[in-house]
Write a structure and sequence with these properties.
49% helix; 6-stranded parallel β-sheet; 3-stranded parallel β-sheet; single chain; alpha/beta
Length: 282
């Protein structure tokens, strides 16, 4: 079982991983087995993503899966590995005030070292006002400090999903910079401009905001080597790790319908014993 002391150490360790000058790549998992797999092959941290967690439990993304289920899943993941775990908690299933404080406390009690916190309103579908979002980030920091956890807050912005809010691309880019600076000032440790692909803008954000920047792996982003040269600290996969797993399963399933694909089963290097070895300490 995680203790506050080891949780604090893991949070500090997770922070350091963003300040090495090398790109931290995190394939986002959704369950204990995925976490154990990444630990086994040599990853230094584990990250969840809200969409895979929701999808694999039969829910749409966007805080449709009950928070109790998310928290139970996080408990199991953090207790299964010796690595820092960062959790995608969307908007923490709360607006402001006491409910946000309560939910953050419950989430932190799972033993996580970091979290993603986003600025899209799940009820209205709009961007959350910047001052309100800053207050929400300050609340997270306050609760973490009270619990003596140097929590790594990854402040996600969905500005690029809201082009219709801005008259020009330049206005949208200015808002990306404005929110990044504001979230940093509110206590964020990392800035996550979702869907950002433009190398020049990525470099500008890195050099202007001066905190670690997280980019999500999407078609059209610069290569890993370029992102590292630009100063990006972290790349997340979001739902892509799950998509790759489903692609493999679907391809085999279609082959089997044609009575093909038997070697994929009989020659698979992933054995039952290997899977058992991953979960034996859970």
């Amino acid at each position: 079982m995680n203790t506050r002391h080891t949780q604090a150490e893991k949070a500090q360790q997770f922070m350091k991983l963003h300040h090495t000058g090398k790109l931290l790549i995190l394939p986002n998992i959704w369950d204990v087995l995925g976490a154990k797999l990444l630990e086994d092959v040599g990853y230094q941290a584990i990250a969840t993503a809200s969409a895979p967690v929701a999808f694999t439990n039969g829910y749409e993304d966007g805080e449709k899966i009950p928070l109790d289920r998310v928290i139970e899943n996080l408990h199991r993941i953090t207790n299964s590995v010796n690595l820092p775990v960062t959790a995608d908690i969307e908007c923490a299933y709360a607006d402001e005030g006491k409910l946000l404080e309560k939910n953050i406390q419950r989430i932190l009690e799972t033993g996580i070292a970091g979290l993603n916190f986003e600025d899209s309103d799940k009820t209205t579908g709009d961007l959350i006002d910047i001052s309100k979002q800053c207050n929400r980030i300050k609340t997270i920091r306050k609760i973490a400090d009270e619990m003596e956890i140097p929590l790594f807050i990854n402040a996600r912005t969905d500005v690029l999903f809201y082009s219709h809010f801005f008259s020009t691309p330049e206005e949208q880019q200015a808002e990306l910079l404005r929110r990044g600076q504001a979230y940093k000032d509110a206590g964020a440790d990392c800035y996550f401009p979702v869907a950002l692909k433009d190398a020049d803008m990525i470099g500008k954000i890195v050099s202007t905001i001066k905190i670690p920047v997280n980019i999500i792996a999407l078609p059209g982003i610069p290569g890993f080597d370029i992102l590292e040269k630009l100063g990006v600290s972290r790349v997340s996969l979001g739902p892509s790790f799950l998509k790759i797993a489903i692609q493999s399963m679907r391809t085999l399933a279609l082959s089997l319908l044609k009575k093909e694909g038997l070697p994929s089963i009989t020659e698979n290097e992933i054995t039952t014993d290997y899977i058992k070895s991953l979960i034996k300490s859970v």
